[in-house]
From TrEMBL:
InterPro entries according to UniProt: Bact_Cytoskel_RodZ, Cro/C1-type_HTH, Lambda_DNA-bd_dom_sf, RodZ-like_C
Domain of life where this protein originates: Bacteria
A GO MF term: DNA binding
CDD domains noted in UniProt: HTH_XRE (cd00093)
Domain Cytoskeleton protein RodZ-like C-terminal: 183-239
Family annotation (PANTHER family): CYTOSKELETON PROTEIN RODZ, PTHR34475
Protein name, entry field: Cytoskeleton protein RodZ-like C-terminal domain-containing protein
Length: 258
């Protein structure tokens, strides 16, 4: 019997590393485009995600060699996507972590070779790692929210009056019984505005946008990025609400007629 080898190009199945690198390049390019469309910088995403800048940049550029193990890369991609407002879990599932080939081998060799039981332990280990990453991410997110809530300490009118003596900021100097504030966004930030006890606005305003609100009794402004928000009271000189990436809340009461 003669054997013949087919001439021409032979299809070679790419390795899992090559597949991961290809997928990372595609996903990273999509995340970079979405971030730029929203007018966000990598430094701003560092504040939102708590992920080091070098890892965010490596994801966008598809540099797999600069990232940790694939299972952790999938978790980082999920957090990155969540911060941009898309479904991070579904988006990150397109990045392969290498467990599929192990499951395939275990299915067709399970009965023939019972000695492969350590593979089941490996799969269990993979599952535990996935659960640990998800749990750690949830814990970090909860800790971040709690820290932000502790940082938001409302300023009373008395405290603002004391600050006004030092730097003339955020106090109503008009003689009427209303107060008006205007905000201009230096960077995309979440803002909540309450006028006379009612929520007038709550959401994310993009960089460069400007809004105004008016109240007859009291006006409260809250943000998670005080350095990215310029605020003016009754058309006075606009000033930053605080430091970049810091949460802040300011209460302003209308000054009654004397």
């Amino acid at each position: 019997m003669k054997w013949f080898r087919k001439k021409g190009k032979q299809s070679i199945k790419p390795s899992i590393k090559e597949h991961q690198a290809e997928k990372l390049g595609q996903l990273g390019s999509q995340l970079a485009s979405l971030r730029q469309e929203q007018g966000l910088t990598l430094d701003e995403l560092v504040v939102f995600t708590r992920i080091p800048r070098r890892l965010l940049q490596a994801i966008e550029e598809g540099n797999l060699s600069d990232l940790p193990e694939p299972i952790y890369v999938q978790g980082l991609i999920r957090q990155f996507a969540d911060a941009l407002g898309i479904r991070g879990g579904e988006f990150a599932s397109h990045f392969p972590i290498g467990s599929q080939s192990v499951s395939f081998q275990s299915n067709w060799k399970l009965q023939a070779v019972p000695q492969l039981r350590p593979i089941h332990l490996y799969l269990l280990y993979i599952g535990l790692v996935v659960c640990s990453v998800n749990g750690l991410s949830q814990l970090l997110n909860n800790s971040t929210l709690q820290a932000n809530n502790r940082q938001i300490q409302p300023k009373t009118v008395t405290q603002l009056a004391g600050e006004e003596a030092a730097n003339n900021t955020f106090i109503n100097k008009q003689g009427d019984q209303s107060v008006q504030i205007g905000v201009t966004l230096k960077a995309s930030s979440w803002i909540s505005v309450v006028t006379d006890g009612k929520t007038a606005f709550e959401g994310v305003l993009p960089q460069g946008s400007s809004r105004t609100w008016k109240a007859t009794e009291q006006l409260t402004v809250k943000t998670d990025n005080a350095g990215g928000v310029l605020m003016s009271v009754n058309q006075q000189e606009a000033k930053e609400m605080g430091e970049l990436g810091k949460a802040q809340e300011i209460n302003i009461a209308a000054k009654p007629n004397l």
